Amino acid sequence: MGFRVLLVAVSGKDPATIHDELGVIATDQFEEIAESPVVGVSLSNGSYLLYINDEALIVPDDVVFARLSMNARLIACYTNETCMESMTTSWENGRINWSVHHDAQQGIEHLETNGRLPSPFFPIRDRLLAQQHGSKDTDYVFDIPVELAKVIGGFRHDCDIEGAEGKPFQVLEQV
């Protein structure tokens, strides 16, 4: 099947404010692997990461991004391995800065960008597009937004949280 998740890292706000703005509350439950519909974890870079598996919340939503990024910064990464679609976006103070989107259904080399892209984007794009030109069986372009989220935001949907031990993911429930 594969991952279908939305990860949202917010910096500049405390977790309680982020929970309130997303409409969730923290529980006393923690997980080693992010399997509940919504979990949260603090990253070593100071951001607070929401790891969303909930079907109702999983679709990237500009209204939610604008709200969570008000008086803060946000990096979000949507990953859908079932149809090979990925997107990473940056928001600050309620406005989008940039976005990178790949949808294999529009073509194996589909890559749509908007805004002023961060400098790490270009070497990631060039390396993975070069790999793509040599392969028809693997979707390397899918990893461009995903790797950019790792470099810029410090997270990746299919990797452990750097420095985290035990059960770092706090289960969050919708209110």
Number of helices: 4
Fraction of residues in H or I helices = 10-25%
Would you tell me the structural class of the helices and strands?
A: alpha+beta
Major beta sheet, specifics?
9 strands, antiparallel
The overall average pLDDT, rounded, is: 94
Number of strands: 9
Question: Unreliable stretches, pLDDT < 50, 5 or more residues?
Answer: none
Shape: globular
Strand order of the largest sheet: 2-9-3-4-1-5-6-7-8
How many distinct domains? 1
Elements, N to C (H/E): EHEEEHEEEEHHE
- Cα radius of gyration in angstroms: 16 Å
Could you give the distance between the termini?
Answer: 29 Å
Word description of this protein:
This protein is α+β, with helices and mostly antiparallel strands and 175 residues long. The chain has one domain (4-174). It is 23% helix and 35% strand. The chain has four helices and nine strands; from the N terminus they run E-H-E-E-E-H-E-E-E-E-H-H-E. The protein has helices at 15-22, 62-69, 121-133, 143-153, and strands at 4-11, 24-31, 38-42, 48-52, 73-80, 85-92, 95-103, 112-115, 169-174. A nine-stranded antiparallel beta sheet has the order 2-9-3-4-1-5-6-7-8, with helices on both faces. A hairpin with a 5-residue loop joins strand 3 (38-42) and strand 4 (48-52). Helix 3 (121-133) packs antiparallel against helix 4 (143-153). The longest helix is centred in the C-terminal third of the chain and has 13 residues, at 121-133. The protein starts with a strand and ends with a strand. The mean pLDDT is 94.
